[in-house]
Amino acid sequence: MHSEITLAMMPVVKTKIRKCKICDRSLKSDDKMVVFDHIHIPIGYCCRYCDTVYGDGDTLINLGNTDKSGIYGEG
């Protein structure tokens, strides 16, 4: 579940990337949105622009939607 909480507000995972691996947009802490699992535990963050989900250490969890087609993939 994506949230409106940024990693700048709630630093729950370690991240070093400065660009999204999928949409190639620049990412600051305010562009990385915290993602929660079904029982509301933070599991990582997503790119604000394409919704690609990353875990701790910038591990790719789920591909985002760069063209806003409504079709998403899995990493």
Strand-helix topology:
Blueprint: E1 2-6, E2 32-36, E3 42-47, E4 53-54, E5 60-62
Antiparallel strand pairs: 1-2, 2-3, 3-4, 4-5
Report on the structure:
The chain has 75 residues and is mainly beta. It has one domain (2-62). It is built from no helices and 5 strands. A hairpin with a 5-residue loop joins strand 3 and strand 4. The mean pLDDT is 88.
- Order of strands across the biggest sheet? 1-2-3-4-5
Shape call:
globular
Low-pLDDT parts are none
Helical residue percent band: under 10%
Derived from helix and strand composition plus strand pairing, the structural class reads mainly beta
Distance between the termini: 16 Å
Rg over CA atoms, rounded to whole Å, is 11 Å
Count of individual domains: 1
Whole-number mean pLDDT: 88
Largest sheet: 5 strands, antiparallel
Instruction: Tell me the fraction of residues in β-strands, as a range.
Output: 25-35%
The number of helical runs is: 0
Count of extended strands: 5
Give a quick set of tags describing it:
five-stranded antiparallel sheet, single chain, globular, mainly beta, 75 residues, 5 strands
Question: In brief, what are we looking at here?
Answer:
The chain is mainly β and 75 residues long. It has strands spanning 2-6, 32-36, 42-47, 53-54, 60-62.
